[in-house]
Amino acid sequence: MDKKHTQMNDSHPETNMPVGYPPQYPPTAFQGPPGYAGYPGPQVGYPGPQIGYPPPPAGHPGPGPAGFPVPNQPVYNQPGGAAGVPWMPAPPTPLNCPPGLEYLSQIDQILIHQQIELLEVLTGFETNNKYEIKNSFGQRVYFAVEDTDCCTRNCCGPSRPFTLRIIDNMGQEVMTLERPLRCSSCCCPCCLQEIEIQAPPGVPVGYVIQTWHPCLPKFTIQNEKREDVLKISGPCVVCSCCGDVDFEIKSLDEQNIVGKISKHWTGILREAFTDADNFGIQFPLDLDVKMKAVMLGACFLIDFMFFESSGNQEQRSGVW
């Protein structure tokens, strides 16, 4: 009895199974049937990894040019961004979508972070604004850079006309925002603020037009044919003291809220000593990508009109 029990507890040296049970896997010394030569060796002349696979067929495009992003993988260290921050993977391009706007088809929220310019903080010398545009996962979608000459920036201040260039993860300019010089006084309601959104550059996809109102900041979102599509309405007092400021995006009859543009509170020090602001934009996921791009332009116009001055000296109404 004890001898039989001892035999049952002895193990095969390769499988650790008791005597009497066949091994579940072949031993490590198993080399296949007679004539089996193992996995094929490296292929001579194949430029890819030497793992024994046959070479690609003739005419195969190969792994792509150096620096080209791998599909469905985050891309790092691309133009205009800080090292270590991933870019949003490029989604499939929907039908009738301007090139570069396919990223907007997959998101319902945008986060905009303005970069702090050290020269501007130390000297008060106005520099070109730069913004990171991210999705809700923190992946960078675009990078925006202002293109305005020194004299215009420092003479006109927040009321200056500007060109804002929006770049994708390949360094291509996919959108251009053009703000002309307009009057910023309530005494001239016939020449209020506006911004034109182009995607691709040179092709207008929409406009944001300020609507005169004695107390509230109001705007109208228009398509490329200058037809009214949506409305934007802000608070009577545009002040971000210890809290967010919301601009509601509404239907044309202003009965339904379809989204909002929010200026986020960034802390007392940053608000007091810089004009670098953080914004968030929310809109329906199935909204036309062109209108999403126009809302992005509306956010930049609102930033320049109400929050570009440092020291929390925001303008207090939509007509000043």
TrEMBL record:
GO cellular component terms, semicolon-separated: plasma membrane
Example GO molecular function: phospholipid scramblase activity
Bias kind Basic and acidic residues: ranges: 1-13
Alphabetical list of InterPro entries matching this protein: Scramblase
Biased composition, class Low complexity, residue ranges: 29-51
Domain of life: Eukaryota
Function summary: May mediate accelerated ATP-independent bidirectional transbilayer migration of phospholipids upon binding calcium ions that results in a loss of phospholipid asymmetry in the plasma membrane.
Protein name according to UniProt: Phospholipid scramblase
Organism (species): Callithrix jacchus (White-tufted-ear marmoset)
